[in-house]
């Protein structure tokens, strides 16, 4: 598959997120004039698009080691994409102070080793590190399902995603799946990185928390680690547990449901700074082309493409904001995300048909030879017919027959556009 054709496939796939239809073949349906989308057929035919999609591979399957042998990689089919994207995500963006880590699930039910089960959902799980301010996806890692110790696995995942961000003063926001005392101690005491996150009551090294009434809170301090247990509503049977290495045991006033409410500072910070990964998911889902597939690496590949497009829009927004602060710069209104995505799609599909064709035919070396398209004739019944001839240069009926609708006007023989230059030299 050529680069231009791959760009066209990606452009059409992204455009399906803007113009959504339940069946992929409906994008090439010309019978229903009211809901027709002729732009897809102008870029690529339906059969060619489906053929390219069915034969899309991200790695050479012949080099894959069998399961159980040394060198086996469960992510072999997407490994080149993951290695290349990892450097792109971190190259052009500087994270803000607050970052968050959470998981994504790409829906998938067929048999594959990276598949995971969450309540009422199957799919390939991603560990994602994103900027809490705007949802920029800075790093992600695929879950391979090779570990049975959840607490140890989440600790390793956090340290792996935070590699390169330690000792820079960041504050990490996590939920109760990742937060633990060993993780907070390692980040705070060894790497100058703060942690704020909710806790599970069965984690190790936690103090015994007494029962809390509604509106009460219990606070413990151990060095730089602050444990907070608070019960805010009667619907909460158990108190909310938080672990913070950044906050102090104070309360702040916040506005909720039209009323001023007093809450612990760590609770207010967690609710305000968490959700960077969820924000990215929300933005991606707005224009995501979710299709059923039997190939799990399809899900991963197009999910990576959607995150790259989202990151490019966030970079564009930051660039526009920086330009607006410069008085001498031209201040143009920023593009909406839909308009920006449409411009990316247009760039992918720009002149794709012209690029897929052969190079322009040079002037003939023989003054008498001239390439022209054979004129449409009519049959005895009155129907129009496009005549064809065998190409005199490349057609061989014993090996491969090539038919063409072009001919040399001087020689009156069939010649392909690609072969006319060779014919004119002769």
TrEMBL record:
One of the Pfam families matching this protein, by short name: DDE_Tnp_1_7
Name used for this protein in its record:
PiggyBac transposable element-derived protein 4-like
Q: Does the keyword Signal apply?
A: yes
Which ranges carry the PiggyBac transposable element-derived protein domain? 2-313
| Keywords (A to Z) from UniProt | Signal
**Which organism's genome codes for this protein?**
Huso huso (Beluga)
Is-annotated flag, keyword Signal?
yes
Q: Where is the signal peptide?
A: 1-20
């Amino acid at each position: 598959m050529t680069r231009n054709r791959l760009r066209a496939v990606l452009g059409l796939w992204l455009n399906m997120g803007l113009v959504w239809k339940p069946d992929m073949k409906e994008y090439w349906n010309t019978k229903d004039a009211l809901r027709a989308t002729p732009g897809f057929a102008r870029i690529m035919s339906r059969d060619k698009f489906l053929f390219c999609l069915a034969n899309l591979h991200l790695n050479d399957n012949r080099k894959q080691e069998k399961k159980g042998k040394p060198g086996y990689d469960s992510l072999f089919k997407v490994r080149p994409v993951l290695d290349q994207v990892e450097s792109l995500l971190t190259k052009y963006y500087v994270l803000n102070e607050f970052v968050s880590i959470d998981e994504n699930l790409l829906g998938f039910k067929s048999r594959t080793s990276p598949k995971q089960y969450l309540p009422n959902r199957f799919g390939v799980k991603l560990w994602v590190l994103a900027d809490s301010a705007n949802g920029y996806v800075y790093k992600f890692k695929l879950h391979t399902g090779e570990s049975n110790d959840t607490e140890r696995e989440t600790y390793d995942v956090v340290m792996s995603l935070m590699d390169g961000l330690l000792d820079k003063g960041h504050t990490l926001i996590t939920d109760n799946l990742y937060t633990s005392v060993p993780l907070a101690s390692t980040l705070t005491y060894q790497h100058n990185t703060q942690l704020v996150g909710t806790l599970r009551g069965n984690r190790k090294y936690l103090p015994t928390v007494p029962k809390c009434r509604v509106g009460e809170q219990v606070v413990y301090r151990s060095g730089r680690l602050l444990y907070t247990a608070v019960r805010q509503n009667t619907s909460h049977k158990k108190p909310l547990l938080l672990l913070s290495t950044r906050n102090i045991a104070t309360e702040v006033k916040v506005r909720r449901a039209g009323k001023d409410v007093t809450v612990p500072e760590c609770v207010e910070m967690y609710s305000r700074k968490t959700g960077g990964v969820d924000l990215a998911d929300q933005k991606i889902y707005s224009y995501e082309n979710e299709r059923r597939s039997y190939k799990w690496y399809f899900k991963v590949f197009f999910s990576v493409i959607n995150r790259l497009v989202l990151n490019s829009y966030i970079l564009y927004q930051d660039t526009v904001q920086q330009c607006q602060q410069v008085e001498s710069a031209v201040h143009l209104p920023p593009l909406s995300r839909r308009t920006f995505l449409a411009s990316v799609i247009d760039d992918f599909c720009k002149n794709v048909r012209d690029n897929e064709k052969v190079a322009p035919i040079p002037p003939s070396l023989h003054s008498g030879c001239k390439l022209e398209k054979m004129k449409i004739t009519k049959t005895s019944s009155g129907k129009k017919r496009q005549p064809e001839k065998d190409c005199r240069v490349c057609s061989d009926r014993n090996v491969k027959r090539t038919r063409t609708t072009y001919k040399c006007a001087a020689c009156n023989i069939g010649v392909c556009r690609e072969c006319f230059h060779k014919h004119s030299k002769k």
